[in-house]
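Repro:
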Amino acid sequence: MSHSKKQLRRQIRDARRALSDSDRCEAAARAAQLLLKSRLFQRSRHIALYLPSDGELDSTPLLHAIWRSNKLSYLPMVQPPYSGRLRFASYNAKSRMVNNRYGIPEPSVSACTIVPAWALDLVLLPLVAFDEKGYRLGMGGGYYDRTFNFLSYRQYWRKPCLIGLAYDFQKIEAVPREPWDIPLSGIVTENRLYPSELLANGA
C-alpha cells in the first residue's frame, strides 16, 4: 500500500467522522432522493447495499425505500474470510445478525438466502474516495474488486451495476489505480450523480 493511499484514507476518514449527526442525516436523505428518481433504481429488483460504519454515507434511507417498493435487499458477507470475496445474503428487518471479523453486523448464514454476485441487479458500495471516471478507493481489502472481477469481461456480463455512495467531498481528481481495480458505473452523493446521465438513463 502506497504512502499516498494511506494518507488519503486517513484524511477522508477523519473528515467523515467529523460530520455532525444532522449533517449525516441530511446528506443521506438527499443522496437517496437523487438515486430513487433514477430509472436504474426503479428497474432494479435485487439490490445489495451495506450497513454504514466509520462515518460512511448512511444507506438506511435507501434500504427503507427498497423495502417499501417490495424489492429484495442483500448485504455483503466476508465469511468465510479465507475466500477474499464477498457473498451476498438476503436481509430484512427480521434478519438475525452476527458480527463479522471487522465487527460489522451481517446476516447469520444459517438464517438467510445466499445469492451469487452476478444475480444482483444493483450493488451500492461504500468508498473512501472516488473520481469522475468511476474509480474507487476502498479500505484496502480488495473484496469488491475480487468479487466483481467478472465485470472486466463486460461483453458477457451486463450486471450488476455498481454504484458508489459517498459525500461530495470524497471526490478527488484521480484515484490511484491498480491493474485489478474494477471501475464503478457511477457515484451518488448528496449533491449530484456522477455521471449526470445516470439520473435519466440508468447507467
